[in-house]
Specification:
Shape of chain B: globular
Strand order of the largest sheet of chain B: 6-7-8-3-9-10
Strand order of the largest sheet of chain A: 2-3-1-4
Radius of gyration of chain A: 30 Å
Oligomer: heterodimer
Distance between the termini of chain A: 23 Å
Structural class of chain A: alpha+beta
Mean pLDDT of chain B: 93
Shape of chain A: elongated
Largest sheet of chain A: 4 strands, antiparallel
Number of strands of chain B: 10
Helix content of chain A: over 70%
Number of domains of chain A: 2
Order of helices and strands of chain B: EEEHEEHEHHHEHEHEE
Strand content of chain A: 5-15%
Number of helices of chain A: 11
Distance between the termini of chain B: 27 Å
CATH topology of the domain at 1-80 and 192-226 in chain B: Rossmann fold
Number of strands of chain A: 4
Number of helices of chain B: 7
Helix content of chain B: 25-40%
Low-confidence stretches of chain A: none
């Protein structure tokens, strides 16, 4: 009990003794962990968007303007009997126009410029496995009466690619910051070990156990890491509260909403990574500079 | 109590061994001087006994335990049975005499209550009664060495190692420290002292082991220096 008290008071003294370094360590740690948390959130976000959108995704087969009734019905039976296809919906020129009108209700000029009958009729095809678009495309590409085949997934993939690269950038930034944070932890521990070298020498001489000698240093780093993760979490929460739910509301409604639960889930991740990484770094540093 | 068997220690980059095939036995309760010129390898013996260095060859047995093959996590516990004083005292400058001695107890898990009982006793024993709350810089060299002896002895170790303990002290103060070590020896503690102070060796008339160039050249029961 008393040794615990000793260790804890040593931790506090240690953090305070070198307070500028401690603050630098906490800040880099916080930024790095916030980046990590953000990319974690983005990963979960992209994942939930994928399941949401891919479920509703279609392949649109637009028909020629001069398609015959025979061609149309033959294509329909062929599609309905296709093992790759889950569902086929026919969209007439009329329906296409109605849809177009509601979609661009904000732009009456655009709607007026397009006359009923100008928009092509199409089959909206849902695939059992959206990945198999290529097979569908190859199979029907040269069928009479088809103008083009469009995979909506391609469009979505572009969006996901952008989100994915943003996520990768966040991860890259997180790892660069993590390197800075690690070096700072190592340096802080070195300075701490140097300033306590006399105590450490006496402790070794009289036979204090290794954990007792090392614990204050390791805990010093862990406490800094945990404070860093708390700041990082506060940053993420502020980002969600003020930006995503505030000024960027319209954008986030377009994508799927980010829940508070997901944000909260990032805290144990960041605290765990922050604490563990600091502890390991401190311990490894002590191996070199303390030689207990 | 202490057994060196054909111990050879060569430091990395050294051209010749510091200790070369040294064998030596020390009984419980003995008082032994290791003497010899600088660089003869006598301080290496202290380092071997503390397990600060390991021999390249041979066996070191302390308290019936072969320490050369001891696992590193057992070393701290092993060191609790050994007290050690040095030429440069190695006191913590920001702690009082009392705190310096109590520190040695607290870091091995003894409670403050134990320290309050034991520390004044041992400070009294080394002749520092009344100076418990002085800082090292407020004490003379001899007094600082007494604090160091108190710290080494407060755990009642079986062995007390002293590496040139009088090296920084004037002759009179040196004699006082020797009287103190002699008193500690009379409580049954084995004392091993490394020195090149001929006056002291000649006055004490104890066992003398002389080392030259890493080899034992003399081992005499009631010896003198030269």
């Amino acid at each position: 009990m008393q040794r615990l008290k000793y260790v804890l008071s040593e931790v506090m003294v240690g953090l305070w003794r070198n307070v500028t370094m401690t603050i630098a360590m906490i800040i880099t740690m916080a930024v790095s962990l916030a980046m990590l948390g953000a990319s974690g959130l983005m990963y979960m976000q992209v994942d939930s968007m994928k399941t949401f959108y891919y479920k509703n995704i279609e392949v649109a087969i637009f028909l020629d303007a001069e398609v015959t009734d025979a061609q149309r019905s033959e294509l329909e039976t062929q599609l309905k009997g296709d093992p790759l296809v889950r569902e086929v919906i026919y969209e007439s020129k009329q329906q296409a126009y109605e849809k177009f009108k509601t979609m661009y209700a904000d732009a009456p000029d655009l709607v007026n410029a397009v006359k009923e009958g100008q928009l092509p009729e199409s089959f909206r095809v849902r695939l059992k496995d959206p990945e198999q678009f290529k097979q569908i495309f190859d199979k029907y590409e040269n069928t009479e009466g088809i103008e083009t085949i469009v995979d909506q997934r391609r469009l979505l993939d572009k969006i996901f690619n952008i989100l994915g690269s943003v996520q990768n950038m966040a991860l890259a930034a997180a790892s660069v910051m993590a390197i800075a944070a690690l070096l700072l932890v190592g340096n802080t521990i070195q300075v701490a070990a140097y300033s306590k070298r006399r105590e450490v020498a006496v402790m070794k001489l009289v036979g204090a156990s290794n954990w007792f000698i090392q614990a204050p240093f390791v805990l010093e780093a862990v406490v800094a890491g945990l404070i860093g993760s708390i700041i990082a979490f506060a940053g993420l929460a502020a980002f969600k509260g003020f930006l995503l739910d505030g000024s960027l509301r319209d954008l986030t409604d377009l994508l799927t909403r980010l829940s508070w639960g997901d944000v909260l889930l990032m805290f144990p991740l960041m605290a765990g990574v922050g604490g563990l990484v600091s502890a390991v770094t401190a311990w490894v540093t002590l191996r070199f500079y303390l030689r207990v | 109590m202490i057994q060196l068997e054909n111990v050879t220690k060569t430091y990395p980059k050294a051209s010749r061994p510091s200790l070369d095939q040294v064998s030596c036995g020390i009984e419980k309760g003995e008082f032994v001087f290791f003497i010899g010129p600088s660089g003869s390898g006598k301080s290496t013996i202290i380092k071997l006994l503390l397990h600060e260095v390991t021999p390249n060859q041979g066996k070191v047995v302390v308290n019936g335990r072969e320490i050369t093959s001891m696992r590193s996590w057992k070393i701290p516990h092993f060191r609790r049975s050994i007290g050690c004083v040095f030429q440069d005292f190695r006191l913590l400058p920001n702690r009082t005499a009392y705190e310096n001695v109590a520190f040695a107890l607290e870091v091995i898990g003894k409670t403050k209550a134990v320290a309050r009982r034991v520390v004044p006793e041992v400070l009294e024993l080394v002749g520092l009664g009344g100076k418990e709350h002085r800082y090292p810089h407020e004490l003379s060299g001899g007094e600082q060495q007494r604090v160091a002896v108190a710290r080494a002895f407060v755990n009642r170790p079986l062995i007390l190692l002293a590496d040139e303990p009088t090296g920084n002290l004037d002759p009179d103060t040196s004699i006082e420290i020797m009287r103190l070590l002699d008193r500690i020896n009379r409580t049954g503690t084995t004392v091993v002292m490394v020195t090149h102070d001929s006056n002291i060796v000649n006055q004490m008339r104890r066992r003398v082991v002389e080392i030259e160039s890493g080899r034992i050249v003399r081992d005499q029961a009631r010896g003198v220096y030269g």
